[in-house]
UniProtKB/TrEMBL annotation:
This is FACT complex subunit SSRP1. Residues 517-531, 624-633 have a biased composition (Basic residues). GO terms for biological process: DNA repair; DNA replication; regulation of chromatin organization. The lineage of its organism: Eukaryota, Metazoa, Chordata, Craniata, Vertebrata. Residues 459-551, 609-705 are annotated as: Disordered.
Length: 705
């Protein structure tokens, strides 16, 4: 037989709600761990008194009764698991796992039996329902009637708030059955009554949640918060965990009390009670008990008279009464030496404490996340600035927590902590890249290396080159389309062909068509200088002398290989960082040596620059003369084209008058005929080219005649 049995997806019935978790049975006892809160119930094998197997709504259930009267219920078993559990109970706990079914007759008349913490309503030998008396918040009596009121359960969709029992009168003298019923209930019920004096009182403590100043009265079974507006009574059984956390300023302390179920104020639920103390506050405390009672109850954990810091006294008293350990931060230390990290959660700024078994964030809203419920964590870049990053946590239930605005210097410490705790890191494959990126951010404020500036320079160069390429292409197109040289004849020819194709239109129409292209050409000519402006902003001349290096860069080039050999596998950014540290630590004499080398390089650069500037000026003068000569030739060619256009117009005006004496010709026929003759003349002028000599005076005179 196996020494242990484990069951997943088992539900524990607590105050009317079913809490999911894992159940483990071993030789030592029974352990149930709540998946939601992480709370562990441990039942020693020697304490078990009875085990009951029965059919319930979720399949089959197991009810365990202990010798001190506590009852534990677990549901979600399969029917086939009964034999395995029965054999295990016999072998390891020496108990018979009894089978008892609930009564489903639906009768409302029966007998009430009080056993331990349970009120059982039975019909015959079969139970109908059971009420844990710890759920009872109030018990009132009437004539032959007892009313039980229950604590509201926020986790349950439907909560049972009240049950009334009719108790018939009996013939026995001196015994009131109603009062006897009520006393049995109140002896086990969780009814908070401030009877007697408080063990001790702490006055005017600053409370962050719920906000305000409260007097804390310590009673044997509950904690009473008394404020100006609200009062809260907190049973010690609802305290889940205690935390004592130092503030980042090292002058204050947080004392955090985790509660389940939470305290309520209207619709607001407070799962955490957070007290803030100053380390300088001291107190002398005297317990309202004699020394024998203190020794008997607390077994040396408290004494009648105590003194010390206020936060120490409060935490010490709470630890003794609640009987739970106080969780403090582990060995984590941030960049500033504090045991916490400043960050923002949702809209508020607070402190994130990495603990040995989880994370806790204080204070608004407080969040506690255990490692065993974390699915993975993620390190993300800050959304608003590069000086910070975000730390994301996603739980196995799919809930995501994002702690933002964490200083970039905290990245290395937090990453090492998460890695040491063996948590799943979503971007683990990018570990080196992430480290490099944050190292680059760390260097971005230094003068030696600015990664962001270098990246912007590279992008600027690329944009400038693209702009130059596009401007060169567009400039060529505009020059070819609207050059007043020989390409201008092609444009004129295109408009002439349009005129012949639409010759049915009048002279006015042809004139308007001629004017439109001229306007377009003028617009492009006006924009041409703006497009050609980037030509003056072209990249550096490759023949120009290179700028001299600084003393640091000369030293870095000479020492790079030595640094790599001393630190094998070092990354580029880490190498730059290490080089900066070595340069800062270098003596003044050694730096002067590299300063002299840098000065020599600067002189050589200035000398080469002078020679380069003289040569570039001569080239620019030659270029200007060639441009002027080219413009002069273009003007001559344009003047020649204007003269030929004038002669063609005079010929076309004379030809209709000459032909009218012979025979009548329509205007359309004349314009088409003369336009073809103009086209033939323009083709002849294109064949001649711009380099042909201008026409002689005799030719021009004959053409005019």
């Amino acid at each position: 037989m196996a020494d242990t049995l484990e069951f997943n997806e088992i539900y524990q019935e607590v105050k009317g709600s079913m809490n999911d978790g894992r159940l483990r049975l071993s030789r030592q006892g029974v352990i149930f761990k709540n998946s939601k809160t992480g709370k562990v119930d441990n039942i020693q094998a020697s304490e078990l008194a009875e085990g009951v197997w029965r059919r319930v709504a979720l399949g089959h259930g197991l009810k365990l009764l202990t010798k001190n009267g506590h009852v534990y219920k677990y549901d979600g078993f399969r029917e086939s698991e009964f034999d395995k559990l029965s054999d295990f109970f016999k072998a390891h706990y020496c108990l018979e796992l009894a089978e008892k079914d609930l009564c489903v007759k639906g009768w409302n008349w029966g007998t009430v039996r009080f056993g331990g913490q349970l009120l059982s309503f039975d019909i015959g030998e079969q139970p109908v329902f059971e009420i844990p008396l710890s759920n009872v918040s109030q018990c009132t009596t009437g004539k032959n009637e007892v009313t039980l009121e229950f604590h509201q359960n926020d986790d349950a969709e439907v909560s049972l708030m009240e049950v009334r029992f009719y108790v018939p009168p009996t013939q026995e003298d001196g015994v009131d059955p109603v009062e006897a019923f009520a006393q049995n209930v109140l002896s086990k019920a969780d009814v908070i009554q401030a009877t007697g004096d408080a063990i001790c009182i702490f006055r005017e403590l600053q409370c962050l949640t719920p906000r305000g100043r409260y007097d804390i009265r310590i009673y044997p079974t509950f904690l009473h918060l008394h404020g100006k507006t609200f009062d809260y009574k907190i049973p010690y059984t609802t305290v889940l965990r205690l935390f004592l956390l130092p503030h980042k300023d090292q002058r204050q302390m947080f004392f955090v009390i985790s509660l389940d179920p939470p305290i309520k104020q209207g619709q607001t639920r407070y799962h955490f009670l957070i007290l803030l103390f100053s380390k300088d506050e001291d107190i002398s405390l005297t317990l309202n008990m004699n020394e024998e009672e203190v020794e008997k109850r607390f077994e040396g954990r408290l004494t009648k008279n105590m003194s010390g810091s206020l936060y120490e006294m409060v935490s010490r008293v709470m630890k003794a009464l609640v009987n739970r350990k106080i969780t403090v931060p582990g060995n984590f230390q941030g960049h500033s030496g504090a045991q916490c990290i400043t960050c923002s959660y949702k809209a508020s700024s607070g402190l994130l404490y990495p603990l040995e078994r989880g994370f806790i964030y204080v204070h608004k809203p407080p969040v506690h996340i255990r490692f065993d419920e974390i699915s993975f964590v993620n390190f993300a870049r800050g959304t608003t600035t590069t000086r910070s990053f975000d730390f994301e946590i996603e739980t196995k239930q799919g809930t995501q927590y994002t702690f933002s605005s964490i200083e970039r210097e905290e990245y290395g410490k937090l990453f090492d902590f998460v890695n040491a705790k063996k948590l799943n890191i979503k971007n683990r494959g990018l570990k080196e890249g992430m480290k490099q990126s944050y190292d680059e951010y760390a260097d971005s404020d230094e003068d030696q290396h600015d990664a962001y500036l270098e990246r912007m320079k590279e992008e600027g160069k690329i944009r400038e080159e693209n702009a130059n390429d596009s401007s060169d292409g567009s400039g060529e197109e505009t020059d070819s389309s609207f050059n007043p040289g020989e390409e201008d004849d092609d444009v004129a020819e295109e408009f002439d062909s349009n005129a012949s194709a639409s010759s049915s239109s009048g002279d006015g129409d042809s004139d308007r068509e001629d004017k439109k292209p001229a306007k377009k050409a003028k617009i492009v000519k006006d924009r041409k200088p703006r497009k050609k402006q980037p030509e003056s902003k072209k990249g550096k001349d490759p023949n120009a002398p290179k700028r001299p290096m600084s003393a640091y860069m000369l030293w870095l080039n000479a020492s790079r290989e030595k640094i790599k050999s001393d630190h094998p596998g070092i990354s580029i950014t880490d190498l730059s960082k290490k080089a900066g540290e070595l340069w800062k630590a270098m003596s003044k004499e050694k730096k002067e040596e590299w300063d002299r080398k840098a000065e020599d390089a600067r002189r050589d650069y200035e000398k080469a620059m002078k020679e380069y500037s003289v040569g570039s000026k001569a080239d620019s003068h030659r270029g200007e003369r060639s441009k002027k000569k080219k413009k002069k030739q273009e003007k001559q060619v344009k003047g020649k084209g204007d003269k030929k256009g004038a002669t063609s117009k005079s010929l076309s005006s004379k030809s209709p008058a000459k032909g009218m004496s012979d025979s009548f010709k329509s205007k359309e026929f004349v314009s088409s005929d003369e336009s073809s003759s103009a086209e033939s003349k323009k083709e002849d002028s294109e064949d001649e080219g711009a380099a042909s000599p201008p026409p002689s005076s005799e030719d021009s005179a004959s053409a005019s005649d």
